Amino acid sequence: MMSQTNWNLEPSMESAAQIQLQAQYELFIDGKWQAPLSNTYYDNVNPADESHLARIAWSNAADVDLAVRAARSAYENVWSKLSGAERGKYLFRIARLMQEKAKELAILETLDGGKPIRESRDIDIPLACNHFFYYAGWADKLQEAFPGQQVAALGVAGQITPWNFPLLMLAWKVAPALACGNTVVLKPAETTSLTALKFAEICQEAGLPAGVVNIVTGYGDSGAALVAHPDVNKIAFTGSTAVGKQIQKACIATNKKLTLELGGKSANIILEDAPIDQAVEGVINSIFFNQGHVCCAGSRLFVQESIAERVLEKLKFRLQSIYVGNPLDKNTDIGAINSKKQLETIERYIQLGLEEGAEIYQPTCELPSAGYYCKPTLFTDVAQSARIVQEEIFGPVLTIQTFRTMEEVVQKANNTPYGLAAGVWTDKGARIFGLSQQLKAGVIWANTYNKFDPASPFGGYKESGFGREGGLHGLRAYLKFPN
Amino acid sequence: MEVLKTYKLYIGGQFPRTESGRSYAVLSQSGQHIANACQGSKKDIRNAVQVARKAQASWAAKTAFNRSQIIYRIAEMLEARKGQFLEELQALGFDLKSATQEVETSIDRCVYYAGWADKYQALLGTVNPVASSHFNFSVPEAMGVVGVVACQQTALLGFISQVLPALIGGNSVVVIANQKLPLCAITFAEVLATSDVPGGVVNILTGSVEEMLPTLSGHMDVNALSLAQLDIAIVEKAQTEAVENLKRVMSYSIDFSQSRAQGLSYISDFQEIKTTWHPIEQIAGGAGGY
């Protein structure tokens, strides 16, 4: 069955010609583009070829303070005085404008972050638009959402988004915050700010009142200034567990409401009665989707012993036909690693896996000469205690373990400080429910993986964070409750 | 000659003395020595967490209806021992009226939460209309082991108001009782021991909050903390220690005698939301959707 399947695909490039990048991006505060008081900018590169994209403002605490003041003033004077129905109309309008600019946003997302254009076009951007559309409809139904409880907006929400799904994570945070009546200061990840800045333009075009959404670009220090600001009522953070813990600490002794969506080391479990080809395809999607830069990536595969050999053989075969390359190429399955720093982290873990005595498999594909790329990687013969099994790698690296009984796999799957997601592959509906009850994770995918929907709550157990984003439960994060 | 009661800890359904072998004097409001209580230790906390973890899964796996009956049984046992609690409270210096009010409100609160066991799921859970062919639903699930520092103002009511919502939701608890008024907590353990609550589901320790709380708040196998009416410095220290494994920390400042000191939100404070995507087979010609 092992054969060479390095197909020489004709490139099918998405044109970036329609994208007009500015040479330099300022901060979006109080509805206007403002040069940073810090007077500092940083260079933003395209991870696919290391070419320069733009210079981006690096905000300091004074800039963040301006943004928070703008958000406070917009909250007091404008946004809190609007009815839910009126707020909803702005959100509907934003959703529509995003849909109109979907193609542009998709290309921008791919240029900036390195994700395959197929994914930004078909997943990130449509889901982001839908998220705004979904929460727009909640804005005038908040009392019905929580009967008998007099809920109210919190005030100014400080939001910090990651680089793996830049616009989608913006939507997950901004849409419910605005629907619930809060104003926002958003700090996007330093390597992927372009779609957030484009979103600022969309807010302007939608006529959103000045100061309701403010965007302060920069590195971790800009985010820390936002967390530390005394006039922020709510912090929402998506990112690493280490930074999440710093934020939780920083919020002690403040009245800030906090939600954290952090790391994961999610188990993907294939049972012997599973439809194997479908499961193998699911494994590919669970770990190689978005180069494995997914907090809920199914990075630990558990295969029932009786089918392990077949599954592994099929996986290896499938890996040979995975296309790693230019993210703008519509053939591409795995695009560029988001940054040089992240590539180095992944490579360090691959080295560590070898040192820990695991067996490695990588396909024979060629990687582009410039840019940050990593081959899809499988590790077998791994111990439960191995660091590559225990720690989040955030790259296209999968560890594979086997099991005999359900009890054993539940124990192994739950044996992690994380608890974000899990996958289950089986033909039996009853087994799906049974395992779903036992697995300690916030999201359980049965015979599918990495599915998202605005109506579906997302968030973790244990050290994967707290609070939910999406659905009715996602509203709780942005409302004050009487008790 | 009166036979005096020895107040011990309640761990794993048993009444052990503290492993440290220490005790401290419990005084009435007028400073009179009423009894001795065990001065629990860090080791006692660790033992209690261990048995609480062991007991949690099977407690959560009991049917909701069964949990309801067990909590209702607590109310029955409490009612039966009402006189004992009244005596204890009066010995501590409470007048009969306030003691009666506290015990009766506590009993009512047990009945109230008993009724929630098979209902909160319907109010906290949802079926979510996703775009793909999946039955997508979200249900509340117990967080696991909850560390409780019982209200330091009340002898019984705060304790009950914090423990029951965690308990009814399938959590097991390790409670540090009111340091100055620990007797009712241990007498309540006698209620628990005779009301079909499985051993290990509720564990009660008496002693110094300052000494024992760090072990609880820093413990890697405790999922959440319920604190009430503690000094802000103690709360902040516990919150800092809780970051280590991202515990969910609830700190209540409400007066537990109020009617709004009970409710669904207290149950929901110790629930995680789990969302499951279950595939739906597409049948030609069929229409539907959840």
How are the strands ordered across the major sheet of chain A? 14-15-16-13-12-17-18
Radius of gyration of chain A: 22 Å
- Most strands sheet of chain A: 7 strands, mixed
Strand order of the biggest β-sheet of chain B: 7-6-5-8-9
Amino- and carboxy-terminal Cα gap of chain B: 71 Å
Spans of chain B of at least 5 consecutive residues whose pLDDT stays below 50 are none
- Count the beta strands of chain A: 20
pLDDT < 50 stretches of chain A: none
Bulk shape of chain A = globular
Secondary structure tally: strands of chain B: 10
Helix content of chain B: 40-55%
Output the number of helix runs of chain B.
10
CATH architecture of the largest domain in chain A: 3-Layer(aba) Sandwich
The name of the CATH superfamily of the largest domain in chain A reads Aldehyde Dehydrogenase, Chain A, domain 1
* Count of individual helical segments of chain A: 16
Largest interface: A-B, 43 and 33 residues
The largest sheet of chain B is: 5 strands, parallel
**Gyration radius of chain B, rounded:** 20 Å
Query: How many angstroms separate the termini of chain A?
Result: 62 Å
Strand content of chain B: 15-25%
Our count of domains of chain B comes out at: 1
Characteristic terms for this protein:
heterodimer; A: alpha/beta; Aldehyde Dehydrogenase, Chain A, domain 1; 2 domains; seven-stranded mixed β-sheet; six-stranded mixed β-sheet; B: 290 residues; alpha/beta; five-stranded parallel β-sheet; three-stranded antiparallel β-sheet; elongated
